[in-house]
Amino acid sequence: MKKIIHRANTRGAANFGWLDSHHSFSFGQYYNPERMGFGLLRVLNDDYVAASKGFGTHPHANMEIVSIPLSGVLVHQDSMGNKKEIKTGDVQIMSAGTGVQHSEFNGSDSEAVKFLQIWVFPKVQDIEPRYEQKTFDEAKKHNHFLTVVSPDKADTEAVWINQDARFSLANFDESYSDSYKLHNENNGIYVFLLEGQLELAGEILDKRDAIGLTGDRSFDIKALKDSKFLIIEVPMG
Q1: pLDDT of residue 201
Q2: pLDDT tens, 51-98?
Q3: How far apart are CA 80 and CA 101, in angstroms?
Q4: Quick one: pLDDT at residue 19?
Q5: What is the number of domains present in the chain?
Q6: How much is the pLDDT for 120?
Q7: Would you give the DSSP letter of residue 33?
Q8: Which stretches make up the Quercetin 2,3-dioxygenase C-terminal cupin domain (predicted)?
């Protein structure tokens, strides 16, 4: 097994007042040649956006972009004609494909919105841009890996991604453990801890720590405290 550890306090950071963002990988003004991604996972930003603020209209192309709200309401609008509210419990994906313009704003004039923005390189270039979002039952994450992003179009419970990647969310009770099994032996997993404390691969993860793992077909994960976390399974090349 090979592993890389990204402690919360080693992430890149950008604070513009209205935006407080922490970057697991090189992004914007933060550049670290040793943190250019994990396999085909390119960006994982942990964003805080102040009330009524947000990202104005800007372009993307040939990237799978996933947004996962952690609290508050995010308002998305794009050149495909979509205008959507994305709330806690929702997962949104946008395949930028041949090119799309979009904006993201805090939908509240009194409370901040916190969300994860994640980019994955696509499997097929220049597809027609597309948008999808779904709401997931918090109870289904209890002591369970709930797949929320899947490459399998037949999996109607998850949003579809143009890549052999899967995202799973889990809420483990203290002392609960389970083994995550890869869907493809050439993939790796990147585990990002939202809350609590986890033990895996001989390491202890605390809030907002992350670990990337490759080389095994399954990985044992144990919660040392009540924990919420994200697993991103991606091809490594």
Answers
A1: 97
A2: 999 999 999 999 999 999 999 999 999 999 999 999 999 999 999 999
A3: 8
A4: 97
A5: 1
A6: 98
A7: T
A8: 148-234
Question: Which residue segment(s) compose the domain that 173 sits in?
Answer: 2-235
* 21-38 pLDDT, tens digit each: 999 999 999 999 999 999
What is the rounded CA–CA span in Å between residue 151 and residue 124? 12
CATH number at residue 132: 2.60.120.10
* Strand 73-78 relative to strand 12-15, pairing: unpaired
Cα torsion 49, 35, 41, 231: sign: negative
Q: Which of 156, 137, 149 is nearest to 95 (CA)?
A: 149
10-residue mean pLDDT profile of the chain (237 residues): values are: 97 96 97 98 98 96 98 96 97 98 96 97 98 98 98 95 98 98 96 98 98 97 98 96
Give pTM, 2 decimals: 0.97
pLDDT of 73: 96
Cα separation, 55 vs 183, whole angstroms: 35
State the burial class of residue 9 (Cβ atoms within 10 Å of its Cβ: 0-12, 13-18, 19+). exposed
Please give the structure tokens belonging to residue 4. Answer: 């890389």
Strand stretches in 139-225, DSSP E: 146-150, 159-160, 166-172, 177-181, 187-195, 197-200, 203-206, 210-214, 218-223
Position 117 scores a pLDDT of 98
Contact 97, 140 (CB under 8 A): no
